[in-house]
Amino acid sequence: MNEKLLNLPPIAEMMREAGLEPKKQLGQNFLFDLNLTLKIARAVPDIANSVVIEVGPGPGGLTRALLMSGAKKVIVIEKDKTAAPILEKISAVADGRLEIIYGDALKLPSPAKGNYAICANLPYNVGTELLIRWLHDFKNVASMTLMFQREVAERIVARVRHPQYGRLAVLISMVADAKILFNVPNTAFVPQPKVQSAVVQIIPKNEKTVQLLSVEKLTAKLFGQRRKMIRGIMPDVDWAKFGLTGTERAEELSPQKFAEIACKIML
Length: 267
Fold this sequence. Notes:
11 helices, 9 strands, 19% strand
């Protein structure tokens, strides 16, 4: 392990020296606990051979853990430049393995070529939006190890008929397998959020030819009125062609059924 990384001051101390505080408007909640950040980093599959993209590194708590865990290279995308002095100090002792990009991850193209892993404590206000964007560009993603609010994590892994089952679970199951790895208590964050968090791992399936945009449009329409029967939302569809009566609700349709319908209905 790189001794220079180990000898850096704790993140909390570096933030105090730089006069930095988390910004509520950017959804920033930082993890300072090295044991937790290392646990997240070491969950990245084949990290020693991986280029890892991290969005929203803030003062670099997880960034340091990824580097200390042996990532081949870490590319961080940070919207808030006030953390630059800390990130630059980490970069100076990272042996050329850290690349820093300042900008909005929602507007930037992927900074890596070929297969890469994504590992991040995603900002609460853009986490779901980023995830859906990555699903549409999944051909180059080897794995995603992401922290979300516990409620969002449950929505990601929910199965048909579960109360949390919805658009997110359907879209992810089209292209990947997802599971919750472990929970992270709100007491681990600064500032302390009201909600609990969880780390989710999403691994792409081999088949990546699903027309995700069509499924996304269909799920938006049906889950947009999830308490209504599907024939009441789309009365012109012959549901019998899909082995359905039309009295079903969106939460009763499996991801496979959504894919089947989306392939034959133009929205």
